Each structure stands twice: as C-alpha cells, then as structure tokens.
Fold this protein.
Amino acid sequence: MAGDKMIKIGIIGGTGVYDPKILDHVHQVETMTPYGAVSYKVGDFEGKSIAFIPRHGSKHSIAPHLINYRANIWAMKKIGVRRILATAAVGSLHLPMKLGDFVLVDQFIDFTKNRISTFHEGGKRGVVHVDLTNPYCDSLRDKLLTVGKDIGLEIHGRGTYICTEGPRFETPAEIAMFAKFGGHLVGMTNVPEVVLAREAEICYGTIAMVTNFAAGVSPNPLTYGEVIKIMNQNTENLKMLLMNTIKNIDIEADCNCQHALAEYGGFKI
Ligand code: HPA
C-alpha cells in the first residue's frame, strides 16, 4: 500500500455516506491540525491511495454547524491531498432537479451565520481575500459530468447551492426567498468547506444528490428519514460515479485551484 505521503485524492462523505465502500485495505489514521485532531480512513482504489472523512462523523453525530471544517481541510492538505470529491444531500428548489438526481454544483450563496470560513484571521497567517469567481473546480466538474452521463445517471452540470446554518430545515418562506435569489438546491455544509478548500489550494468538487423537495416545494413536512431513504437508494450510483471519476483523474495534473493564493505567496501549512 502507498504511504500516507502519496495520498492525492480525498473524499468527504456527507449524509448517508459514512463508509469508504469503494476502497481496499482501509485503515484508520489520526492526524493533528492547529484546529484539533482529525480521524480519517485511508484505502486504495485502482492503485491510488485515497483519504476519506465522513463529514458528520461515522455515526452522523456532528451537526452541520459544529463540523470542524478547518481541521478537516487542513488535515487533507497536510497529508498531500490535491483534489477533494465531496458528497452532499440536498433539498431541491427547482423542479427539474428531481429526487435521486445528481447535481454538480457550480455556485453557492452563503446563508450560514456562525462559521469561520478562513484560515487567515490576521496575525502570523495574515489576511487573504480569495477569489471565488468559480468556487468549484471546473475540471473536476467536467470529469464528473462526463462520467455521470456515460454511466447513464440523471445528472445536472450546474446548480446554485444555498447553504443554511441548520440543523433545522427551512421554512417555506425562506425557500421561496432562496428561489427568487436564484438558488436551485439547499443544504447545510458546502460553506465553508468549499471556501477553505480553495484557500488551501485544493481542487474541490461537490456531488449533490437530491434527497427531497425543499420545504413548501413539497406539500408534505420534511423528515430526515426520507433524506436517508433516497440517499440509500442511490448509493450504488454514487459509488459508480466516484469510482469511474477517480479512475479518470490524473493525480499529478496541475489546476488553477492549486494556485489560488499565488498573489499571497501560496497557502502555508
Ligand atoms: N434543506 C437543508 N438541507 C438538506 C435538505 C433540505 O431540504 N435536504 C438534505 N439536506
């Protein structure tokens, strides 16, 4: 098995994705970061060594607003990860994005309230203003879309993700407002994860999976059970999408995302 230094691809599993089911020789590792310890799994797939972090913990015990986003991304950077594929369960505000569909998010609108979304809070690390014109890695998005279409998934190449603070679901009035703002999907975790990945100069792509129509779009009250049910029904598709995309990733390829802080002399760890 490749040593941890060789890990170039990371997977962050969202709701319903707690196990790196595609990996062989999986073992648990812990690493320290300035934000605390991070426990992750490492395994092999197609000769590539891959790190896996279940965002909510392996038993869904970490609420979206309490996830240690900075520690997770720092840990990925520290072990050498250059590309992250993240999964996310989302509610749909946009009828063409239906239950079970995959959406490759390309924009977000941040409605979180209480999260630190930078590694640079002044002092020794300074202050940076990272560019998010294209917040998600275009190259990963293109790969995911090509693979998703090839394997016959219902997959959308773009979508705007509204990130709420959670952990509660939204009110129908909030959802109506988000739709007017141009949102297509709603979830609770993409911000600050995507922002921190960009600061850390790691390519980041989100595979969002529609698990429900958002509050008020659906006539029925929302339940966490329905989210999990749809997620579980689609596990095989998600696995296929991940496996075939990872096969196609050139781990050494350069990308603009990996130079996001060039103006500041690069990301320092
Ligand atoms: N709202 C917020 N987060 C979600 C939803 C939702 O409807 N579905 C899955 N995650």
